[in-house]
DNA sequence: CTGTTAGCGCATTCAA
DNA sequence: TTGAATGCGCTAACAG
């Protein structure tokens, strides 16, 4: 290996000073285009790779964004948020340093500490399911934006899915297909999604003048097995619903199974819509499951973009707290009601 | 904010020199336990946070590991590899800087360049599906280990699943349950998994003295729909197999659907085993799908651990190329053959 | 056992 | 328009 080439080697080779090189490369200073170009080509031919540790140390900008999440692993959604954030960060010449806590506060604290030691410029504090969070103490004073997470009393920017709107979209679709007795398989946890989607369910009914019937709601854990049981309960009723709106695709898969067990054909005897658009399921089910997509990629992107803006803008832009639209993805699980 | 506290502030407050502080904190040097402890507590009380940019610049060790993958997003496996790598890295006081290329060589090159600019100590070059890869040119000379990827002609360490062993385990399970006519729904792509699992399938047959019957093999894309079609073909035969071994869980889901369509009960009329143990499917299917787990977390861990060892050991340890064992996860999709 | 000192590679005044 | 000099915060000789 040849000796590592630094800014001074480039300067020597180009016959200029290090200052000129620095300016040429970073776009700063007042240089003639000629020198700038020449320096750049010299740098390239020398295979120069700027040392961001040094420039970060000097300029107090590491160009690193910390991404802390609760669990990147189990959820299949995670990846898209990360990806969105990464793409946006890359556009700003930043790179992501990721840390996840596995829902363990102590690990999270350690991870955050590591990020801070590496002098990340800012942090994206993400959750894999939309939830209310507290800003960790260590992060006070650090530029931070919440991703798929929010905090009422905080003045930080955040982005979450529009839960209520998502449910409304799903229900509108069902109601426009002609359904009026629509069961809702809701999640059992007390999280924003549970509350927001229920609100959307009710809002849709109200909007279309359909009375709300508490008995059409069944609660279930967000998994297929429990979803199946809950759906079976609803389908066993003499006046069974003609359509089911499901909290998520895993529960919807349970609803499919319950329908099979009850010898109900989808969508002929029963229509189903859910939320997640988790393709491994929604696309695989027979028939394909019509589902509302959660905009994970877009949220990730927005968070990184927003953070970059806050890092750039010296002292403007009040925090924004966004609820992002969730689009309907049509497949084959909805048809007109039987009767 | 109080002025940022650095090593010199700590030194002043503790009444020692910066060297002593540095040594106390890093564990180096020959200090009395007393001073070491005192310095540490002073540092803590001052809320000192070491600046890794500076220490990295000076020591030429950023303590950052680059993690480059092809697509973190779509696959649900990804997370666990990242997680394993992260856990192992954290144990070595390292942190992960992640970059993914979305299967785009140009993006990958840019990402790698960014990592190199940040002076990562080493790189984990990962694929989300086991595949043969070439080491990117930019990485020559950089400590690298392959994760779920390998390169025959390279002298780098790598870890991949033991594809053949996985298939063997699955087949043994079926054969021990009494099956002899076992169909194989293989993937259609020419990748190590396709070849390895087929080899395992044949090895298992040979081991138990069962003749290989080419016609019991059906090819399918690794998705549920195509898997369903392929399974239907096999199940339509007059001498249909009593069991199906599936390339992965998505194909297995298709096999379940084909069984339903053919009015075959699982496992009464048809046993199924597959590979992936992708819980969102395997656990959700009715009955639960017996599947071989791919050791993603463990591979991720191994890769980071191995890289750390290479970074520590100056010039020992020849490269290791590991095939990792894949354990069987029992659920309810296997029973004795009907006849 | 502890302190002094000299850079790591770069960005940035300030002068020329 | 360019160059010389200074130090970001820390580690690692080397001295004491």
UniProtKB/TrEMBL annotation, chains A, B:
Record-linked SUPFAM superfamilies: lambda repressor-like DNA-binding domains, Periplasmic binding protein-like I
Highest taxon above the source species: Bacteria
Pfam families, per the entry: LacI, Peripla_BP_1
Domain HTH lacI-type: 5-59
CDD domains for the chain: HTH_LacI, PBP1_sucrose_transcription_regulator
GO molecular function: DNA-binding transcription factor activity; transcription cis-regulatory region binding
Keywords: DNA-binding, Repressor, Transcription, Transcription regulation
Protein's name according to its UniProt entry: LacI family DNA-binding transcriptional regulator
Organism: Cryobacterium levicorallinum
